[in-house]
Amino acid sequence: MADSPSAGGPGGGPGTLEPTPGGERDWLRFRDDSAPDEPAVSLDAFLDQSNAGSVRIEAGDDVRHLAPHLERLRLVEIDFPKFRDGRGFSSARVLREMGYDGEIKATGEVLVDLIYFMRRCGFDSFAPDVPLDRADVESVLNRYPHVYQHAADGAVPIWQLRHG
Amino acid sequence: MYKYDQYDQAMVSARVADFRDQTRRRLEGKMTDDQFKPLRLKNGLYLQLHAYMLRVAIPYGTLNSRQMRKLAHIARTYDRGYGHFTTRQNIQYNWIKLEDAPDILAELATVEMHAIQTSGESIRNISADQYAGAAADEIIDPRPWAEMIRQMTTFMPEFSYLPRKFKIAVIAAETDRAALRWHDCALRIVRNEAGKIGFEVFAGGGMGRTPFIAYKIRDFLPTGQILSYLQAILRVWNRNARRDNIHKQRMKILVHELGEDEFRRQVEEEFQHFLALGEDFPQAEYDRIAAYFAPPPFETGLSEEIDRSDPDFALWVDQQVAAHKAPGYAIVNISLKPIGQIPGDISAEQMELVADLAERYSFDELRATHAQNLVLPHVRKEDLHAVWTALHEAGLGEANLDLVTDIIACPGLDYCSLANARSIPVAQKIAERFADAERQKDLGELKIKISGCINACGHHHAGHIGILGVDRKGTENYQLLLGGSGDEETSQAKITGPGFDEAGIVDAVERAVERYREIREPGERFLDTYRRVGMDGFKEAIYG
């Protein structure tokens, strides 16, 4: 994942996360490029329209259908209809494993305590239904000094730190 | 046993700070109770009828004396002076104040303990054979893999909000002491024809309102690929499970609906994908962890003799002591089922006594069992009498392992808001009915398991005799089940017929047991007789 500012260097966990500078509007976007401005369309519509660049993934959608279209894809919005519906975490990780390096935005019931795990799964922007407290988000993102396993954020897992 | 390094300690300490912050935000009204609930559940904090319950993880059931003393301290300081060992080798406290919970977690962190993922829709504490590292019949100690799985499944980001809970068990013996096939995912370590160690993998088991016995989905998985394989299982389930009905979201339902073969096919496909990512733990990490589980320095040349001249001691030895792999040593089971007491309960003073015994006689090791008892895994045979004497004086000398009074029971309506009926009084009355030691011994192995509602926390599906409490027009009613088992020949118990009231169920159990005594053939356990004659052989005796 080339453009993730979260990717800690050797020994670094996701504790080094910094929101992209650029004012209030952007503090939940963790990317340096400009935000795509075309509206996201449904998965079916995206697969039908050869020129669409933004897609909206509902909780039950299979992102593997996007595999042949990664070239034209700039934004994937993944919706969390309820915060307890964890399918979107897998969707983001699958996208990153396929090599997609564009924006993945979490929408819907996105809560403070989810964001840390979403970042690890490859989400790099957030549009919560209910506004979040910035200090709380930053505190949550910097809480854990290490991680126990690989994910989509490039953080080096503890077992790797142990063995150099 | 395993020791935290600076990384493990940092993670557990961070979790304490995390939960303290979450609790603060909840108390400040920054999140709703609905939003807070899954967060506290993932820290083991569960709201019961009268108070919060805190469930503390005991990874693979192993703990040392320092940890046990801390558990006693917590019982005394933050609860009512006792704790309750659960059917998944954990301990829970029933009278916790929310505002105390962060401090309790901080106390636990000082002894390398936590309550991470002990409740809620998460990958739960890994359970294992309580005789691991001591059993005469195991091929290798399964705990290094259990510890590896503990680490890899801690805060797994992709599986932050699973459809439901996910329970894993690991054993390494033919004899199943961990109710393997009642788990969502179960691993049995085996040796293949080439002499290599690997996992036999089972998936899709679980009790609850829709019980399933896990299917074997793989004969042999190289141990070094376990992270990829587990992730494959979890991803297939996380992506495909229903999310519209909490009672249909356990993995067992998906496995059942897809069918064993299709589930296996999807897992294998995802498995190949994960293998290619190259994220599995390396051999060096296994070696690092396994070094902590090296056998303790067993003495050699010890006597195998046990002086049986005291008949009460001899009775206890026959029931509570199991074969150890090292000559001159024995495995001691400590019953937490004194007649008339609450199954699994233990006072702070008893915890401290048990901690002292572990330190003095068992290389500082203790185990919790899924049957809600404790184990001193490495006791010299020549010390057995001293251990028994101390246990006996502390009210822990009951000799009833696997007998009719060694009952598993959930907390039931005395504590739990989900329950329809009380479990504890029924367990107590049955134990009192069968208290006579000779009668128990004559009846032999007989596992009674009692749940106070269909969620089956008391494992009634796996009871040789199961009891299920239900609500029948506003009164407590108890269904009787026969023929379940959690051992290597796993089976699901079946309902005998109409239910009974509280007094009636005790009589019905006695009628079933007496029927067994009448018709058993030499050497047959209750379960063997049931399997031979079926329900028909018992029904008339029960209902007349």
Provide a descriptive summary of the structure in words.
The complex is a heterodimer of chains A (164) and B (544). By secondary structure, chain A is of the alpha/beta class. Chain A has one domain: Rossmann fold (3-Layer(aba) Sandwich), CATH 3.40.50. Chain A is 25% helix and 13% strand. A five-stranded parallel β-sheet of chain A has the order 1-2-3-4-5. In chain A, helix 3 crosses helix 4. Chain A is globular, with a radius of gyration of 15 Å. The two termini of chain A are 22 Å apart. Chain B is of the alpha+beta class and 544 residues long. Chain B has four domains: 104 residues, Alpha-Beta Plaits, CATH 3.30.70; 148 residues, 2-Layer Sandwich (Sulfite Reductase Hemoprotein, domain 1), CATH 3.30.413.10; 83 residues, Alpha-Beta Plaits (2-Layer Sandwich), CATH 3.30.70; 136 residues, Sulfite Reductase Hemoprotein, domain 1 (2-Layer Sandwich). In chain B, the strands form four sheets. Chain B has a five-stranded antiparallel β-sheet with strand order 1-2-5-4-13. In chain B, strands 3-14-15-12-11 form a five-stranded antiparallel β-sheet. A five-stranded mixed β-sheet of chain B has the order 6-7-8-9-10. In chain B, helix 3 packs antiparallel against helix 11 and helix 5 crosses helix 9. The longest helix of chain B has 22 residues. The mean pLDDT of chain B is 97. Chains A and B meet through helix 2, helix 3, helix 4 and helix 5 of A and helix 1, helix 2, helix 6 and helix 9 of B.
Brief descriptors of the model:
heterodimer, A: 164 residues, alpha/beta, Rossmann fold, five-stranded parallel beta sheet, 5 helices, 25% helix, globular, disordered N terminus, B: 544 residues, alpha+beta, Alpha-Beta Plaits, Sulfite Reductase Hemoprotein, domain 1, 4 domains, five-stranded antiparallel beta sheet, 37% helix, DUF934 domain-containing protein (chain A), UCP030820 (chain A), Nitrite/sulfite reductase (chain B), NO2/SO3_Rdtase_4Fe4S_sf (chain B), iron-sulfur (chain B)
